[in-house]
Amino acid sequence: MVSKPFALLTALLLTLGSLSTSFAFPNLQAPNGNLLRRQEVEDSTASQAGGRPGQGVDPPPPPGPLSFTGLKLVNDRDHPWRPLRNGDIRGPCPGLNTLASHGYLPRDGVATPTQIIKAVQEGFNMDNGAAITATYLGHILNGNLVTDLLSIGGKTPKTGPPPPPPAHAGGLNVHGTFEGDAGLTRADDFFGDNHSFNQTLFDKFVDFSNRFGGGFYNLTVAGELRFSRIQDSIATNPQFTFKNVRYITAYGETVFPINLFVDGRQTERKLSMDHAASFFRDMKFPPDFHRAAQPSSGAGIEQVIAAYPWLPGGNADGQLNNYVVDPTSADFTNPCGLYTFVIGSVQELYPNPTGILRRNLIKNLGYWYAGGFASAGCTELFPYGQL
Predict the structure, then answer these.
(1) Measured CA distances, 263 to 21, 291, 307 (Å)
(2) Is residue 301 scored above 90 in pLDDT?
(3) Most buried residue among 18, 58, 221, 237 by CB atoms closer than 10 A?
């Protein structure tokens, strides 16, 4: 059974989406592994939020729900699509890429958690709790906690000086956190490019939509495609890992397009291939696109899991077709297990923080916990004390 906090988590643990430049950091998914592993919204807005490189920022609390949470035209005059400029950053998540290309996020692809939470609510009508939980998870693991800036793609000096190793502020492309193996339209990290749109995989997306969804991507297609992509990785990627954070995001990303990429005026939750290509490939809202008619997150994930129940694990000993279940991994039955796992991962990244970094870690961990894990009854942990 999928708990409410996990439904929230899987939502923007994917605009967070078909979550991939990888850096030389080990995979976060190893249970006890070493974790070495803005010009619009507008430019003026971006310059006011977040710190300049080298400047410490006191991170504000996350924003609350929108004042109006209904159907709304979002591909509007105030948010025109624009092509990438030299230096603009995009990453593995088609949702965030689209928001940046339309100016809901800074067009350069570097944003604060506050900007991301506001953007995914305004542009997609993402549930507020889901937005907070997933955004702060990505920020804590991959953002610059001193400047309060996160790259939606690869590592960049635009987020400021990196923290001391083993932390990296590497952005959402870092393998094994948001980005992970068996993505819907991105290749596994093992093959060298885990963040760019992959036409071959999108062709498979279209093929499965034709075979199982009558030309549309729906929950039936999602279940079939999720299982098939797992099998692909088992057979071709000797380093395939599918556990902890990635186990959760992999199932979340399958329902994300159905809940958030389908025009809110449609009563049937199914995504056309033209609209899928617009988001996944072109990073663009379809013409006259209206966001979801009500706040949405992980609806339907139970159906995807039920189609082909699968346990977390990975290929063992660097061998193909050698999938071994990991009983220590977090899964959908125990949200507090994921919370505890990530806290341990953060402690590996930041073993002895001091000053502004320690303060900001304490605040960001608190925001993340309150976003979803508090309502699950998880005991809040304070690895760096309290303010």
Answers:
(1) 31, 6, 25
(2) yes
(3) 18
